[in-house]
Amino acid sequence: MYKIFLCLRYLRTRYIVLASIISVMLGVATMIVVNSVMSGFANEMQTRIHGILGDVMVTSTSADGFYDPEGQMQKIRDTLGDDVIGMTPICTTVGVLTYKTRVLDADGYEREAQLTEQVCIVGIDEESKNSVGDFGKFLQHPENRKQLSFALREAGYDTFENQKMMQSRGLLSRFFSGGTSKKPLHEREEMKKAGWKHRLEYYGDPKDGVEIITNQELHVESKNAANESLPTMKKEGEEEEVSLTMMDPNQVIAPQSDHPMDNPPETPILHPAEVSDNSGMPGSDSEKAAIDLAKQANSGKDGVSRNSPFDVHPVRDDSVAHEIEAPVLGVSNAESRSAEEGQEFNLNESLEAMKKNFDPEAENAEGNFSENVSGHEIAEGSEESKNSIAETEGMFSGNSIEDPFNPFGDPVGHEFDPEKETHPGIIIGIGMAMFRNSEGKDRFYLLPGRDVMLTFPDCNIRPQGVSGHFTCVDLYESKMSEYDSQFVFVSMKEIQKLRGMPNKANQIQIQLREGVDLDAACEKLQKVFDPQLFICKTWRDDKMPLLQAVDMEIAILNVLLFMIIAVSGFGILAIFYMVVTEKTRDIGILKALGASSWGIMSIFLMYGLALGIVGAGLGLLMGLIFVLNINEIADFLSWVLGHEVFSPDIYYFYQIPYDISLATVGGIVGGALIIAVLASVFPAWHASRLQPVESLRYE
Amino acid sequence: MMELMQVRGLKKSFTKGPHTIPVLKGIDLDVHEGEYLSIIGQSGSGKSTLLHVMGLLTHPNEGEVSYRGTRIDNSSDLERDRLRNRDISMIFQFYHLLPELDIVENVLMPMMIAEGYWKFKFHQREHRERAKMLLERVGLAHRLKHRPNELSGGEMQRTAIARALINQPKILLADEPTGNLDRATEAGIIELLHGLNETEKLTIVLVTHNPVIAAGADRTVTLTDGILE
Predict the structure, then answer these.
(1) Which of B99, B100, B117 sits opposite A4 (nearest CB)?
(2) How many domains, in total, are found in chain B?
(3) Among B48, B77, B112, whose Cβ lies nearest the Cβ of A1?
C-alpha cells in the first residue's frame, strides 16, 4: 500500500520530476507526429502505386509485348481460379507528347507555343481497366470515374481537386476532424469549361475546315478567352509574369512561324493501317531486334529515351521548362504525304506469308509515316525509314469502317473538323497539363477538349517514330508527381494499331480477392508463364526500391527519434538519482518501520512508471492533437513565418496527409514507458541498498 | 517473568579506513516483558548502537539477540522487516517523520507497510479512526491535518510515539527521545512513556544520557565504553 501511496505523493510534491515528464511528453509527441505524417505520405504513395498497377502483374519481358492477351488472361484465370476478380491488359511504350498552348508574353499578348513532353504511354482497355486497381478514381470527370470512356465529355469535369476522398483515413480523424477539409481549396476555374465547350471555343471560327488558326484569329480569340475565363490574368500582372518566366523567352516562337512555309511539312499523316501492316510479323530476326530496341526504349522510360528516333528532350518538370517548338496543332491531317504507291500488302495475308515476304531492305514503300512532329531535324531520318511501312488501300478503308472515331480512317482528302469530331481520346497526367502558381491556384496549359499529338516508336525491326493525333478527354491526377507528370493513357487498340502490334499487350494487371497472398499467387503464375518471356510481379515488387526507400526513411527516423526518448530516459535517471539522494532519510525511516528492500525499490520503479504514464499520456494527447490539426498548424506557421511551410508546389498535396496507426502509437507509448521504468531501475536499486542506520544516524 | 528480549555477548565495531573502532565490547542484557528499562551512558558510549542492533537496524559483529527465545539477529530480511514492523518499534531523537505526509498519514505508515493495498483500502476507515485515537492519546487531537514541519519538537515526538504504537508492538525502543526538547516538553514525553508502560503494559527500553530521565525507569543500566555495568 505504502508504495503506491508514497509514489503518488512524491509525484505530487516533487516538481523537479516535471522536467522528466515534459521530456518524455515531447519525445512521444514528436514520434507520433513524425510517424503519422510519414506513414501518411507512404500510404498515399502506396495507394497510388497500387492504384495504377493492380495487385499482380504479368509483364512481357519484351517491350513489344506478347500475343493474345485474351488467351493469357484465360491462362491466368485457370491458374488462380476464383481469386481473380479483375484483369486488364496494358500496352505501354515511351513517346513524346506535343501540343500547343497559348501563353502570354511580357506585353500581355497571347501567343501560341508548342510544348513537348516526354511521356510514358499506357494503352489501356477501357472496359476492363477499372476492374483493376483504382485508376478511374483519379480522373476528373465523374462519369469517367464510374465507367471509363475515351469519348470527349460535354462538360462537368471536376473543378476541385478530388483528392479529398483520399485523405483522412486515420482512425481517430473521424472523431476529431470530422473529415472536413480545412484549407479552402482554390477552384480550378479553367476546368469549368473543359469538354466540348472548350473545344469549340479553342478551335472555333474555322475557315471552311482550314486547319490553321491565323495569328489574328488566335489573338482575338485569346483576348476574348482571357476576358471570359481568366479574369485574374488581366488584373494581376504579376501572375502573368510568373507564367511567362517559366518559358524561356528565346524559345517562344512567334505565331508567324506557324505558317506552313516556315516549317517542314508537318503532317503526321499516319494511317494506323499503315503501321499495323508490318506489325504482325513475328519474323524471328526482325522481332528479336524489335524486342531489343523496345527493351531499350522501355528502359528509357526513366528519363532518357535513348533510342527514340526523335531528339527527345527529357523535360521532366512540366511547370518549369518547356520546349516550345514550331506549332503543329490544328493542321492535323491536312495533307497526307503518305504516298499511296508502294508495294501492295494484303492485310489478309497470313502471318506466315508475312514472315516470308517481309524484308525491310527489299521493301521500298514510299510511305511517309513517321513524320517529324515538332519540326525537328528528323526530316532526314524519315527518308531512311520509308521502307519500313507499306500500305494497302483495302486496309485503309476497311479500317475506317471499323473505327468511326479514328480520324485517320477517313478517306483521303477528308478534312478534320475539330468542331464536329474528335481524335481518339487520351487521358493526360495532370502534371503535364497544369502548374500551380504561387497562390496555389492551378493554371492549365491543356484542358479536356484539346488536341495533342503523340509520337512513339513502332514495333519494327528498326523502330521508327509513328505519330497520332489524340483529343484530350480527361486528366489523370493521382497526386504522385512521378505519374502525373509522365503518364498518358490512350485506348489500347489505338496503340496496338499505331505501333503495329495487333492483339498484343505488354502486361496483364490482375486484381485479386482481398486477403489473397500476393506473393504466393505470383509464384503460381510464374510457374505457368515462361520466365524468359514473362515476369510475374506484385505491385510491391514492382516499386520495391521506392517503397523500401520510404520504409527505410521511416525506420531511420524512428531510430533517431527513439533516441530522443532514450535521452529523456537518461534525464529521468539523473533526476531520480537526485530524488533518491534527497530521500535517503525517508528511505531509512521506511526501513526502520519495516519496509522491505523490494518495497523501497518498487516505490521508485512505480515512480518511474507513473512518470512515464503521465509523460507518455500527455505526449500521446499532444501528438494526436498536433497530427489531427497539422494542416492548421502548418497554416499558422506559414502565417507567422510569412512563407509557405508545406508548399503544395513541392508535394502536390493541398493538405499534409497523415495516418495514425494504433500499433505505432501503442509501440511508441509502450517504448516510452519501458524506457522510463528502465531509467528508474538503477536509482531504485541504489535506494534499496541503503542501510537504514546510515541514513538515520546523523541529522 | 519471561525475558522478552535477550542480548548475549554482543560486539560491534565500525571500520573507518584502516582503523577499526570497537563500540560495543560484549554486552549481555535481558529485557523483561512489561518492564521500563533505561540505559544511561555518555555520548559515544555506544548506547545508540546497542539500540539499533536490538531494533534490527544493523547487524552485530558478534553475539546474538533473541526475541521471545528466538534468535533474530541472523534471521532473514523478510522476518526482520516483519519484526520491525509489528513487534519492535523505535522512536528517535530526531523524530524521523516523513515530511510529505500529514501526521495521520505518518502514523498510519507502519500499517500501510504491513497491509496490502486492498486490505488497507478496505479497512481504511477503522485504521484512520485508530490513528486519530492514538494521536488523541498522545495529545495531538487538534493537529490532525498538519505536516511535520508545522509542528513543534514535542508534537513531532508525540506523533512519532503514536506511529510507533499503531501496530501494537511488544517493545518500544526509544533513542534519546527528549534529546532535542526543552525541559517542560521533555517531562511531558517522559510522562507519556511512563503512562504507556503503566496502563498498556508496553515494554520500553529508553536510552538517554540524562540521569533525571533515567531515574523514572523501573530499572537502569549504565553503559560505559561499550560495556554494561
Answers:
(1) B117
(2) 2
(3) B112
